[in-house]
Amino acid sequence: MSVDSENYDADLLWEEFHGVVNMTSEELRAYLLADASGEEAFPAETDLGLDSLGRGVLQVLTKRKTDLTKDDLDTMRQVVDLVETLNDRTDDEARRLQLSVGHDPLRAT
Fold it and tell me: Buried b vs exposed e over 35-54: b needs ≥16 C-beta within 10 Å?
């Protein structure tokens, strides 16, 4: 793959990612912290029990497109794929999974 096609793919992925992530970083962080404080409360780990993909989304949301790493691009692909896969589901589990990566299906239009 040439550098130009990699940049094109990154540009397209950037647009798709920001099209499906419809929560702000503050909203996502609050959701992840509330979810992590559920029945098991905060574990001793430094990540506070936050979903790893959700943490990745928070990291991507703080970056400019030119600062993305390969790991960021992988995170973005996973999020886009997850939201597209769960798009037709309306159950609570699917909604929680989507919320954990910054997509609120009730806001989607």
Answer: ebeeeeeeeeeeeebbbebb
Rounded to 5 degrees, φ, ψ at 57 are -65, -45
CA 62 to mean position of chain CA atoms? 12
pTM flag (> 0.85): no
pLDDT at residue 67 tops 90? yes
Buried/exposed 60-98: b ≥16 CB within 10 Å, e otherwise: bbeeeeeebeeebbebbeebbebbeebeeeeeeebbebb
Type and span of the H or E element at 26: helix 25-36
Contact 103, 21 (CB under 8 A): yes
Place of tokens 């929680």: 96
